[in-house]
Amino acid sequence: MNAPVRITITGAAGNIGYALAFRIASGGMLGADTPVELRMLEIPQAVRAAEGTAMELLDGAFPLLRDVVVTDDATAAFDGANMALLVGAMPRKAGMDRSDLLAANGAIFNEQGKAIAENAADDIRALVVGNPANTNAAILRAAAPDVPGERFHALMRLDHNRAVAQLAQRAGVSAGEVSRIHVWGNHSNTQVPDVAHGQIGTKSVRDAIADEAWLDGEFVRTVATRGAAIIDARGASSAASAASAAIDHMRDWALGTREGDWVTIARPSQGEYGIPEGCIAGVPAIARDGEWSVVTGLELAPALRQRIDASVAELQDESAQAAQLGILGA
Ligand code: NAD
Ligand code: LMR
């Protein structure tokens, strides 16, 4: 057995938090050899509901679950945390844009970044799920300047998984047959799914799905607007699929990505593909031994480049807005 890993979930009583906790407790994130300690942060009004979730976690009799603490105190929630899933934030409702969420949610990440800086373990790795996820991750990172920047990620794995699933469905194969695709940019409808290097089995995506119009049109639109389509159908934003994607992201960070494949992550840019340094945009990446490396050297067609630039510009606008609101670098 490995040493226990302490994991903080913020917004633990919410829809995504509820789905996450049980996957983590059952070993779905860190595997069957790693015990976990959960720290569940909520706002005071939702602590009772989170306590109910903690009761259910106990009732699950999970052999790997060593300890559960429910609290409304960020200091206690991040105390000694090795991993943090920052979900606690208001979700988008029908008719809202992600930018509408910045004013509502951004301040949460400024405060929680400070709590991470002061209380988390030295090896803290944080994934922001709460929207607007990329800019909230930038706010979190700026509030914890002594923690290495590459430890702050935003969730783009859901966009990645959506792209994989659309391609698999169209080709009539399982999702596991699709590899080497990724999604550039912001977790918003400006995102840029990229299949140029993708494979389905041993064929290129463009050979396996011989329909350029679909690949360049409906596929891209479906993936980029899937969040709104789910809100429209469910009357609530995606929850189980978002939790599953967050689990995939953290599992790969800890245990490594699949041999011969890459996935999408968003972490502070180190200038790869001309994305400005520090910008938290979706890029292709591989994880080995707990470290991510961005896949470099991929050719970008001019039209794709333009769309990536537009999505990155949107991220820079969001950051400028956050700075104006006094929540980025405050
Ligand atoms: P939800 O409303 O069901 O749950 C959110 C929870 O966060 C609530 O229980 C709330 O009390 C709690 N919360 C609010 N402020 C908090 C704070 N300061 N500290 C701790 N907890 C706090 O929402 P949900 O469906 O779980 O979604 C959560 C967030 O995730 C939303 O912002 C949503 O837009 C986002 N989301 C992101 C992705 C992605 O791919 N990045 C996908 C789906 C949803
Ligand atoms: C999603 O992509 O499902 C979430 O980010 C929810 C949303 O607001 O789109």
Automatic annotation (TrEMBL):
A Pfam family that this protein carries is: Ldh_1_C
User: Any idea of its EC number?
Assistant: 1.1.1.37
Q: Where is the Lactate/malate dehydrogenase C-terminal domain?
A: 157-322
> For this protein, what is any one GO molecular function term?
L-malate dehydrogenase (NAD+) activity
Looking at the record, the residues that make up the Lactate/malate dehydrogenase N-terminal domain are: 5-145
Q: Which UniProt keywords apply?
A: NAD, Oxidoreductase, Tricarboxylic acid cycle
Locate the active site. H187
Catalysed reaction(s) here are: (S)-malate + NAD(+) = oxaloacetate + NADH + H(+)
Q: Which residues form a coiled coil?
A: none
Q: Which Gene3D superfamilies would you find in this protein's record?
A: Lactate dehydrogenase/glycoside hydrolase, family 4, C-terminal, NAD(P)-binding Rossmann-like Domain
Residue ranges crossing the lipid bilayer per the database entry: none
- Residues noted as binding NAD(+) in the record, renumbered to the chain: G11, A12, A13, G14, N15, I16, G17, N105, Q112, V129, G130, N131
Specify which residues bind substrate according to the UniProt entry for this protein. R92, R98, N131, R162
What family name appears in the similarity comment? Answer: Belongs to the LDH/MDH superfamily. MDH type 2 family.
Protein task: Catalyzes the reversible oxidation of malate to oxaloacetate.
What is the protein name for this chain?
Malate dehydrogenase
Source organism of this protein record: Gulosibacter bifidus
What taxonomic lineage is listed for the species of origin? Bacteria, Bacillati, Actinomycetota, Actinomycetes, Micrococcales
